[in-house]
Amino acid sequence: MQSTPRIAMFSTQAYDKQSFSSHPLYSQISLSSFDTPLSAKTASLCQGFDTVCAFVNDKLDAEILRTLHDAGVKHIAMRCAGYNNVDIDCASELGLAVSRVPAYSPEAVAEHALALIMTLNRKTHKAYNRVRDGNFDLNGLLGFTLHDKTIGVVGTGHIGAALVRLLTGFGCNILCYDPYPNEALTALGAQYTDLTTLFSTSHIISLHCPLNEQSHHLINENSLASMRDGVMLINTSRGGLIDTRAVINALKSHKLGYLGLDVYEMESELFFRDHSSEIIQDDVFERLASFHNVLITGHQGFFTIEALNQIAEVTLENMIGYNNQFATPFANGAAPKSRFLVLP
Ligand code: NAI
């Protein structure tokens, strides 16, 4: 396969078009972009394409993968790191290659997690509105000093490690949990521990592990009960790590003192689109958003200029590299294997 690869890109936003089309490798592909997400209804659009380029909330279950395979698609190029929405076993059975962007500016997501921590704590989002309104009253804006607090980081891969590095600058005590500890973080003063100790000791818990069968609803009624009263919970990873109903109950009982989310279990129905003139039908989301101590952003942790450029570059390299069976050198040195979850 050496001819120009024909790519169908789903869930395309204006910023995707901009970052992909301005990259020099763009001239080596033929790209058709669809604003719509990939779903059972839209999979039929893929007839005649070699590669499908998908994002976090596109659906790639067994049924859809079979439709893509039957349509002649050979490669699923994820333009993100997480791949919990892809049935990898089925892709493997069908011989569909699956690639992703293993790390794009992990600092971007770590900095966003820190922004959620700082905003929830010091309430700058509320202060901004008050001061604009001529209200200089400080009541209700009381925060706590981050220095010396214990922060639990669950998952210390690219993003969790970047957060640990940031937090060392604040003089926090850092507890980590990961099945594969990173010695470089221990050298910085972070301590690895078991999940039970991390949950029961931390003032702030930040989630950075992938969503899979083991981590689904990691935050549930039982784990919440084991935490400190008034704990702050931050999730910039994947919504399914949290049992949203359990978290709502924990907010109502004051067990959870602060909640910062960049991801939400049912986000595929809401995120990345403007619903401001509609009636939102998701009552669980609406209840969550109603708490004064909950801050939700719409999956924007990755959303920096640097990260978008890296996503475009690595995805283009994956698409062209697959087409040339990896003959194209990969600019940032990452071996094809680390980018291809399923090799052809
Ligand atoms: P990574 O693969 O570098 O690190 C994940 C770490 O989690 C690994 O060290 C792994 O050993 C560990 N881990 C696996 N299962 C675990 C468990 N049950 N408990 C604790 N640790 C566990 O991934 P990276 O790049 O750090 O990304 C983390 C997650 O962040 C991704 O899975 C993705 O869901 C999410 N993400 C969110 C973005 C956003 O815009 N909000 C953007 C990019 C990624």
Produce a short descriptive summary:
With 344 residues, the chain is of the alpha/beta class. The chain has helices at 14-21, 62-70, 88-94, 106-122, 124-132, 158-168, 183-187, 195-201, 221-225, 244-252, 283-289, 305-323, 336-339, and strands at 6-9, 30-33, 51-54, 75-78, 97-99, 150-154, 173-177, 191-192, 204-207, 231-235, 256-261, 294-296, 340-342. A seven-stranded parallel β-sheet has the order 8-7-6-9-10-11-12, sandwiched between helices. It has a six-stranded mixed β-sheet with strand order 2-1-3-4-5-13.
User: Can you tell me the number of structural domains?
Assistant: 2
- Helix-strand topology string: EHEEHEHEHHEHEHEHEHEHEHEHHE
What is the C-alpha radius of gyration, as a whole number of Å?
Answer: 21 Å
How are the strands of the largest sheet arranged? Answer: 8-7-6-9-10-11-12
Helix share, percent: 25-40%
Mean pLDDT: 96
- The overall strand count is 13
Strand fraction band? 15-25%
At CATH level 3, the topology of the largest domain is Rossmann fold
Instruction: Provide the structure class.
Output: alpha/beta
CATH class of the largest domain: Alpha Beta
The major β-sheet equals: 7 strands, parallel
Walk me through the structure.
With 344 residues, the chain is of the alpha/beta class. It has two domains: 6-104 and 304-342, NAD(P)-binding Rossmann-like Domain (Rossmann fold, 3-Layer(aba) Sandwich), CATH 3.40.50.720; 106-296, NAD(P)-binding Rossmann-like Domain (Rossmann fold, 3-Layer(aba) Sandwich), CATH 3.40.50.720. It is built from 13 helices and 13 strands. It has helices at 14-21, 62-70, 88-94, 106-122, 124-132, 158-168, 183-187, 195-201, 221-225, 244-252, 283-289, 305-323, 336-339, and strands spanning 6-9, 30-33, 51-54, 75-78, 97-99, 150-154, 173-177, 191-192, 204-207, 231-235, 256-261, 294-296, 340-342. Strand 7 (173-177), helix 7 and strand 8 form a beta-alpha-beta unit. Helix 1 packs across helix 12. It is globular and about 65 Å long. The protein starts with 5 loop residues before the first strand and ends with a strand. The mean pLDDT is 96. It binds 1,4-dihydronicotinamide adenine dinucleotide. 1,4-dihydronicotinamide adenine dinucleotide binds at residues 81-82, 103, 106, 109, 154-160, 177-180, 208-210, 214-215, 236-238, 262-263, 299, 301-302. The site of 1,4-dihydronicotinamide adenine dinucleotide (NAI) has 29 residues, from helix 4 and helix 6.
